[in-house]
Write a structure and sequence with these properties.
Blueprint (H helix, E strand, L loop, with lengths): L1 H9 L3 H33 L8 H10 L1 H6 L3 H46 L10 H43 L1 H8 L2 H38 L1 H6 L3 H54 L4 H42 L19 E9 L5 E10 L4 E5 L6 H8 L7 E6 L2 E2 L5 H5 L2 E4 L10 H6 L7 H10 L3 H5 L18 H13 L5 E5 L7 H14 L4 E5 L3 H5 L3 E6 L2 E6 L1 H5 L4 H19 L1
Parallel strand pairs: 3-8, 3-9, 6-7, 7-8
Antiparallel strand pairs: 1-2, 1-4, 4-5, 9-10
Bound molecules: adenosine-5'-triphosphate and magnesium ion.
Length: 598
């Protein structure tokens, strides 16, 4: 099941990958020709034993003139050794390139698939994963997979190829010596497998600790101002040293374990070599084994021991790889948002009709209860309500950033959830309560709303949002970088940039979710006026905590605890007891006091 993700990602590069593995097998064959050349040279050229060769080769041997021929041309075995080494190198190189090329391509595809899927995840499903977690899935988890397919899987194939060539080769030369030569190999393999399975957990703990440390680092660097403002540097430093020390401690433990592993397994390898050498020498002295055969065995063994030592590690890492694949799949399994272009595209004038609208968050908390209201095209609506009363939630429903779970919302008579999302969002524009600016130029941030916007249009939108003058104050104008490595905009400037960005879409419905809270009242009035003249019939919905803003609208909806509890014009609402009146009194009295104080 998990492998399916991998197989899909490898589509298109599977052949290259398999060709790489085949080249690896060929390279292994050439590697093991070396010991045979040594054996024949020692036994049948230097000594005088009949060569043990397969039939066609034996024919060549006698046709050339047998032993005497080679005895006068000792450079020939040397050249043959060199040739096998070169061919082995050549095929290893081919293998390296092929597996690298195909696995990098697969990994690139995997990364793209993840990125595109994340881009299309439904708004609310994003909450299931934290940002750091998603980043880790797209980077280090993918890297684990990359390591496996480009390095570890070929390593498994190499070891298997080696064993399947070496063991029959050894058996054909001398069964008794084969037993001696492989006696400790299963022990070595078992030890390596058990060891790496055991330290696997330590590796994971080290990774987790590193992730905690980098999350903390990222958070405190991003929040450095808050840290300074509260004078919490010392506290943060202490917290960081804790993480840092924990990481050092875990890393040290792993390194210690590894040191132990390498010494014990080296010792076991030496024991194995010693066993073959001593046992083999005894057999040579007894005359049952030739020097050439013993030399061939010793050479084969050198090639074999290291891969066997590594095999345990590679197999243990397979666990890591399947965890990583599982983590990718967890994201890829979340169904993506319905196609943005699926649905009808009605002409929108800006009339909204909400009937019994209900909404619950995935955690089960119902936030909106039976919302009813009619908004006419061109009407200016204000929304007031205490914190948490559901204003932003309602706003998200109107642009279908969330889907309402009950009731009906119609725009000019068309049910909202039958309209193509992209189309709807080109008709209903929202300035979100927490606008996000990218660390790009002002122009690029604005063009996010409409990639093809002309400069005049950009300036027009910026003028309406009272942002053009701000931009003119920067030496690089619209090409000024904002955010990190650029100018730092004030809270109100950011909000005006976000507003200008939304205005670029020039939609019949405009929703401002408390989007001018940081803009001073005078500038805000100016913006409202500019908006008015911008489009003859613009339906606006302004969520605000400011009475001066709300007073300028045609009708105000008062929300409390997910319900509309009152609605009417400013003059009506201040004259009847209720939430609106209380807020008005508070703000009004405050304004009067200010005036009196001069
Ligand atoms: N993603 C979410 N999952 C679960 N509950 C949420 C989620 N987002 C908001 N809520 C809850 O929904 C309720 C309404 O939140 P909402 O953001 O709509 O309030 P609001 O009226 O816009 O408040 P404010 O004036 O502070 O902006 C709150 O109780 C909030 O805790
Ligand atoms: Mg809100």
């Amino acid at each position: 099941m998990q492998l399916k993700v991998l197989l899909v990602a490898m589509r298109g590069s599977r052949r290259t990958y398999l060709a790489g593995l085949a080249a690896l097998a060929v390279a292994t064959i050439f590697l093991f020709l070396g010991p045979q050349i040594l054996r024949i040279t020692l036994d049948s050229v230097l000594a005088n034993e009949p060569p043990r060769l397969p039939e066609p080769l034996l024919g060549y041997w006698s046709n050339l003139g047998g032993r005497t021929f080679f005895l006068h041309r000792l450079w020939l075995p040397a050249a043959a050794l060199a040739a096998t080494a070169i061919l082995q190198g050549l095929f290893t190189c081919v293998q390296g390139r092929a597996t690298a090329r195909s696995s990098e391509a697969a990994v690139e595809r995997l990364r793209t698939a993840m990125y595109n899927h994340i881009q299309r995840l439904p708004y609310l499903d994003m909450d299931r994963f934290s940002t750091g977690d998603l980043i880790q899935r797209c980077t280090s988890d993918i890297d684990t997979i990359r390591r496996f397919i480009s390095l570890e899987a070929p390593e498994i194939v190499r070891t298997l190829a080696m064993l399947s060539i070496a063991v029959p080769m050894m058996l054909s030369m001398d069964p008794a010596l084969t037993v001696l030569g492989l006696a400790l190999v299963p022990v070595l393999f078992g030890f390596s497998l058990l060891f790496f399975l055991r330290v696997q957990r330590a590796f994971e703990r080290m990774d987790e600790s590193e992730a905690r440390m980098s999350t903390m680092l990222q958070e405190s660097i991003t929040g450095i101002r808050v840290v300074r403002a509260f004078g919490r540097q010392r506290y943060e430093e202490d917290r960081f040293s804790q993480h840092n020390e924990e990481f050092r401690h875990l890393t040290f433990g792993v390194i210690n374990n590894m040191a132990l592993y390498w010494s014990v397994s080296s010792w076991m390898s030496m024991l194995q070599v010693g066993l073959l050498l001593v046992g083999g020498s005894i057999l040579v002295l007894q005359g049952s084994v030739s020097i050439g055969v013993l030399t061939a065995f010793l050479t084969i063994q050198t090639h074999l021991l290291f891969p066997v030592r590594m095999l345990g590690r590679v197999l243990a890492n397979m666990g890591q790889m399947s965890v990583a694949l599982g983590r990718l799949q967890e994201v890829l399994r979340v169904p993506i948002e319905q196609q943005l272009d699926e649905g009808q595209r009605p002409e929108v004038r800006g009339g909204l009709s909400l009937q019994n609208v209900e909404f619950s968050y995935p955690d089960g908390s119902q936030v909106l209860h039976g919302i009813n209201c009619e908004i006419h095209p061109g009407e200016r609506i204000g929304i007031l309500g205490p914190t948490g009363s559901g204003k932003s939630t309602l706003v998200h429903l109107l642009a279908r950033l969330f889907e309402y779970s009950g009731g009906s919302i119609r725009i000019d008579g068309v049910e909202l959830n039958t309209i193509a999302k992209r189309h709807l969002r080109s008709q209903v524009a929202v300035v979100l309560q927490e606008p996000f600016l990218f660390a790009r130029t002002i122009r690029e941030n604005l063009r996010l709303a409409r990639a093809g916007a002309r400069d005049e249009e950009i300036i027009e939108a910026a003028r309406t949002a009272c942002f053009h003058e701000v931009v003119n104050g920067f030496s690089q104008g619209y090409d000024t970088m904002v955010g990190e490595r650029g100018v730092t905009l004030s809270g109100g400037q950011k909000q005006r940039l976000a507003l200008a960005r939304t205005l670029l879409r020039d939609t019949p419905v405009l929703i401002l979710d408390d989007a001018m809270s940081a803009v001073d009242t005078e500038t805000e009035a100016e913006i409202r006026q500019a908006l008015e003249s911008r489009r003859d019939r613009l339906t606006t919905i302004m969520v605000s905590h400011r009475i001066t803003t709300l007073a300028a609208t045609d009708r105000i909806l008062v929300m409390d605890d997910g319900r509309i509890v009152d609605s009417g014009r400013h003059e009506e609402l201040i004259n009847r007891p209720g939430l609106y009146q209380r807020v008005w009194q508070l703000q009004h009295q405050f304004a009067l006091q200010e005036e009196a104080a001069g």
